[in-house]
Records
---
Amino acid sequence: MKLFVEKNYDDLSERASKILIEEIEKNKNIVLGLATGSTPIGTYKRLIKAHKEKGLDFSKAKSFNLDEYVGLNGNHPSSYRYYMDNEFFNHINIGKSNTFVPNGKAENLEEYCKEYDRLIEENGGIDIQILGIGTNGHIAFIEPSEELVTCTSIVKLKESTIIDNSRFFKSIEEVPKTAISMGISSILKAKKIILLANGKNKANAMANILDNDKISTKVPASLLKLHSDVTIILDEEAYSETRRR
């Protein structure tokens, strides 16, 4: 596990984008695992800039997103499909048919989840997966629990996650209570993983991972220690509660 502690969010985004640019340039057919939320926006902006100014080519790339709210269609401004289109896909030369975001309006959600995992495998698996982390240690929408589902599935969101994500909705009442999320096995199958965390509100979650040699389903992000190629990139605030300095 590689750890980089950057001075601020801009430096974090710069570090992450350089790693991704190098991977995309090496492999034109790259399969990207993508995340939403506020943390990766700076990284996506730098990838867009590299595309527009230096010709970074996404024409043969494919992408799979981690999650989506159940009940929201892709036109809903708080859906993750809407986010990805507006923050990233609309600004690069990736074919929309090559971008996969879980369908929160799928008719048969359980069967759809199985199909999503099959689709990832049929496309050769994810080459590099971007992750954020929740204040409670969740990755994707894999919430702390006594047991975790290994594959893509429907998950019930914890109250802390609903509160955290309410900033993207008009009110907390509008936040969906369930979501489609990749499972921990789906994520750990990625060849490379980058975990990003910024801000003081992520400091306790990161300390739980970095100060502890154990793994626990109650801190889902800790299971990344089982992977052979994980890079963690933090800003100083997200690292501020960690004892290992």
---
Amino acid sequence: KTRHPTMTSALDYLSAARRCEMGELAQLLHTSALLRQLGVLIHALQKERGLSNIVLASGGQRSVAARQAQMAACDQEVARLHAALAQLELEAFQGGHGARLFSHIAYVLQGLDALPALRARTTALGLTPDAATAAYIRLVAGLLAVVFEAADSATEPGISRLLVAMFHFMQGKELAGQERATGAAAFSAGPSQAPRQQHWLHLIDSQERCFQVFADCAPAEPLALWQHTSSHSPELAAIERMRRIGCTAATGQVLDAELSGPWFDACTARMDAMHAIEVQLAKELQLRCAAQLQAAEAALAQPQTLQQPSP
């Protein structure tokens, strides 16, 4: 049985604290690379969900070829996710965090295994738009749970704050994606439905709450990019106009099906701009983890520089 050196001094315990900190940072550094690929896959699945809604709501008359192309793009990102998972150093993850993270990953992989069956039922027009949307929402929720686990595990205040910003931004973008799918289905289906309108309004309100938390926690550069996107995006006026049409129409009033395309395109441009911010947040996370780990390693190598950890 291996015996560890007896720890008797304050310096011994400060060194041990730094080694624990380095272990946590190493976990986060590995997780941050995975989060970046998860964000890319979520973005691809969100677009596939919206196109699937148009196909189903139009009875297979619209967006069939675009959906096929998007499914191929999603498959490429699924393959990249598997490659990213293969690169994980499992021994870097220990304790409750590792157990929870791996449980979420297992759930995600099960959901991805079920994706071909969901696609086949959509192709056969065997689902309602709402049922298809719900299935994609469950899959994306599983992917976001991995992001939440990373945010919940961070102890370093600056990195924890960044992860909170990142999670809420991704959650807000997911709600924007659900809004894109809801609007696409509404315009493609024709007659306005009061429950769908109420859900649409709920999605608008919920995503704004997420973006407010992001704004409260985000680093300066991603926040400035978001503020610019929110105030200067040319498609926002079109989205607001079509929101008013879809959300204020009388029950049973026939919506213009020709708006499904412009609605989807405007929302997609907005979400592509959001995805650029997601990428920037993931890059910032990797840089911060690497810098903190390097600093901790340097401090451990020079015991005289060790200081009491922040509470």
---
Amino acid sequence: MSTSTIEDRFWAFVNVQSPDECWEWGGGRLVAGYGHFWALQKTHKAHRFSYALAHGPIPEGMFVCHACDNPACVNPAHLWLGTHQDNMDDRTAKHRHRSGDTHPRSKLTADDVENIRANRMNLTGQEMAALYGVANTTISAVLNRQNWKESK
């Protein structure tokens, strides 16, 4: 019979380094790179579990943010509590926000968006979607400035 605790099991998945380095999660990871850990009858994000072990319960609605910007890091010294807005402000301050054609999944360029908006009276949304190889909803979002807000 094993006498290991949940904490022992958690830290067995962590490559602990010096206090100022990232401590990489060695267990399973979600698509975005965040570790996940099964304990207490549910799956927890590893960085949130680490924060709670080190600092206590996480208040409802609060985010556990990474000072190091490494989603796999579970070093409690790299983790801080913040609101969604705090997390977005941190992302912007560190220039990690990608939009427009700098976003890795973008199919359109700034020139495409300008042409789509210029041709809104000449072509239907369906015709533009076929021309640019995107969904009708993408064309609609561009025309209604839900996407590419900063473009002409």
---
Amino acid sequence: MPTHFTDGVSNVISSNPLYQFGMLDPTKYHIIFDDFDKLPIAANYTLTAISGGSGTSAITSQDVDGGVARLTTAADELDGISAEWLSESFLLESGKKTFIKTRLSVGDAVQSGWMVGLHSTDTTPRDATLRFFFESVDASADVYFNIDDNTTDADSSTIATLSDDTYITLAAYYDGVTSVELFADDVRITTMTDIGLPGAEMALGFGYWNGAAGAETTDFDYVFIAKER
């Protein structure tokens, strides 16, 4: 049974100006939660399309309950598109917990590559000098987490194996000390330890590229990033 706190709840001391707010203090975290309800997506992201032929890869918001960003590639192999938040506004710091969570459905789980998470500004995010994101590479349906601090490039073990056009929820939790816990469909799968943190600010980003000729689509239901202030 739920517990009713009729006067609300608080996560700050009684002298804090938000103590009487009745809800948890939202200013304790820096948060981006994009449910893809607003148009155009380019208002918040720099979009970079790779299209080898006459078609153009694109990202559009769909008329779907809950909001969805659909990435549709052009028809040539390695066509695709990435979206990068307009500013690099997340710095991973010792002592500050950080969370990433996303839900996506990949059109072709094997013949594709995609990423979602944090990276330094780069029009080809998979080659960015700083990376802290979920990824899958062409010719594999396996999902892993990649951390690159511009010195050491580290991959987790396999977190999940995707199926075509099937939603999966992925999450990462940096404990603010030395480890990143990784989850698939809200189940903890593995933990990366003794990690090297990227040493500069990064932007939220996501992208998808096809691994064979033919237009493909991938849907991102939401992306969520939160860091303790």
